[in-house]
Amino acid sequence: MSTQTVPIHVVHRLLKQAQRRGTDVMPLLRAAGIPGDIAYRPKTRVTIEQMAKVTRGLWQLTNDELFGIGPPIPLGTMKFVALSIIHAPDLREVIIRFCGASKVLTGVPRVKADFGATIARVEMDVSKLDDPEHLGTELLIALVHRLSSWLIGRRIPLKTVRLPYPEPPYAADYQPMYGRMPTFDGPEGRVALEFDSALLDAPVVRDEKDLAEYMSDQPGVWYARRDFGSTTADQVRKILERGLSGTWPSAEEIADRLSVSVQHLRRLLRDQKTSVSEIKEEILRDAAIASLVRGEESVDDLAVRLGFSEASAFRRAFRRWTGSPPGAYRSE
C-alpha cells in the first residue's frame, strides 16, 4: 500500500462539494478514518487510501465521477475512456483519442490538441464546470497527464501549465503535482498543457491487463504521485526510500550512485525546488502518517524504525511536519 500523503486542503475542497448539496460531511471523514480533531488543521495530511475513501463516498452520494461539478459523468466513464485509449500505438494517438472521447461523452469537458513542430499543446474547456474550488479542473488535468505518462511508461515533462484562475494559497503543492509551477489567470474556462513534440512518437507500452491493475486503484491513481524515475528528484527519492528498511544513504553516496558530484546533485535538486534533506523529510513524514493511520506499530517502535535516536525527537519532528502529535493520527 502507498505511503504517499495528500494535503488536507484537497479533502476540504472535495467535501465542500458535499456541503453545497447540504450533506453532513462528518460521516465521510469518519468512514475514511480521518479524526475530527485534525481534519481542519492546516498542516494535516491524509493517506492516499483515506483520500480515495472520501472520494468513493462522494461518488456514492452523487453517482457522478466529478461529484456534481458539471453535467453528470456516470460512474465508469473514466474507465471506458481508458479502455478506448489503451490500444493506441503512441502518445500522439492517445491524445487524439482523448479528444475524440470528449466529443461524444456527455459531461466530459472538450479536449483539443495542437501538434506543433516543437511544442504539443493540449487544451481543455472547463467553462461549464461549477467548480469554485478548482478541484474538478485539477483532477481532470491529473487524469490526462498521469494516464498519458503511465501509458508510455515515462513522465511527460510539462513545459507549461496554464490555469484559468488566480493563484491559490496552496499553489506550492502544484510543483510535485505537475512537475512545475503553473501560470495563473489564463483565458477564462481554458486549461492548457504544453510539452515537447518529440514525445508524441513515444510508443504505448501498456496492455489491457496492465490497465485493469492500474484502474483497480481508482480513484487512488488520481491522487498518487507516479514516479517514473525521469527527474533527479525521482531518482533521489527512490534511493532514499531504501533507508526506511536499512541505513539512510548520505548525499555523497546518492551523488555517487547517480554519477554526479555532490555540488551538481544539489544544483539539480535546487532547480526542481527541493533538496536531499527535504525529500528525506517527506519520506519520513509520509511513512509515519501511513503507519499511524493503519495502526501498524507503537509510536516508540515507529520512532526506532524511522531512525530517530529517541521517541521524543520523533514526536517533535512529527509535530513540525503536521502541526499535531502522533497520537492525533490514530483513527477511531
UniProtKB/TrEMBL annotation:
Annotated HTH araC/xylS-type domain residues: 234-332
Cleaved signal peptide residues: none
InterPro entries: AraC-type_N (IPR032687), Homeodomain-like_sf (IPR009057), HTH_AraC (IPR018060), Tscrpt_reg_AraC-type_HTH (IPR020449)
Molecular-function annotations in GO: DNA-binding transcription factor activity; transcription cis-regulatory region binding
PROSITE patterns: HTH_ARAC_FAMILY_2 (PS01124)
Assigned keywords, A-Z: DNA-binding, Transcription, Transcription regulation
Entries under Pfam families matching the protein: Arabinose_bd, HTH_18
Keyword Transcription included in the entry's annotation: yes
UniProt cross-references to SUPFAM superfamilies, sorted A to Z: Homeodomain-like
Record's keyword annotation contains Hydrolase: no
GO CC terms of this entry: cytosol
Protein name: AraC-type DNA-binding protein
Organism (species): Kibdelosporangium aridum
Lineage: Bacteria, Bacillati, Actinomycetota, Actinomycetes, Pseudonocardiales
